[in-house]
Design goal:
- The chain has seven helices and five strands.
- With 185 residues, the protein is an alpha+beta fold.
């Protein structure tokens, strides 16, 4: 049988289980806020299950899938750029909440176990290299970033309020001194 010329033709030739796998992953990729690509070589089955349990507790789905099926799913989900980083044995960690959580959990796992290097990522329509994924993992949580922003915005306003209070106090003291001088005269 000759090789399929298009992705659609290849999908038609694929068996029903593969099509279900592709469609399921495409649906998840469409909902995901971030996707982190890892190299799972060197992990035992037990370690992989522990990792999946840890990720699941954070609302992250981890799948080991063939690259050709992952590329088809990415194309169906409208994020074909993800296919450019899929080479070798990879696992996909799909986050559905805060963007940095999958990168943080996987980075922490890598730091402790020295396995499962972060290969690449896909966040908000952009493919990230391993360094960018690591930088994403090091970002503070969203709540902390918002608190820092609020503090940054609040500091100048507090200074302005203090300056205005000082001006009003000085004006009141000057007017009081002027009234006292007029009464004495």
């Amino acid at each position: 049988m000759p090789k399929a010329a298009t992705a659609e033709e290849a999908a038609e030739r694929a068996g029903p289980r593969k099509q279900e796998t592709v469609e399921g992953l495409a649906e998840k990729l469409g909902r995901a806020t971030s996707a982190i690509v890892t190299d799972y070589r060197g992990l035992t089955v037990k370690q992989l299950e522990e990792l999946r349990t840890q990720l699941r507790s954070q609302g992250i789905d981890y799948q080991v899938i063939k690259n050709t099926l992952a590329r088809r799913a990415a194309e169906q989900a409208g994020i074909g750029e993800l296919g450019t980083v899929l080479s070798g044995p990879v696992g996909l960690a799909l986050g559905f909440g805060e963007l940095s959580v999958p990168a943080k959990v996987l980075s922490d796992y890598h730091r402790v176990n020295r396995r499962l290097p972060l290969v690449a990522g896909f966040v908000e329509g952009q493919v990230l290299d391993a360094r960018a994924v690591q930088a994403l993992a090091e970002l503070p949580p969203r709540d902390v970033l918002l608190a820092q922003l609020a503090g940054t915005l609040q500091a100048p306003l507090t200074q302005l309020a203090g300056a205005l209070t000082s001006i009003v106090s000085n004006l009141a003291a000057t007017l009081d001194a002027y009234r006292a001088r007029l009464e004495a005269a």
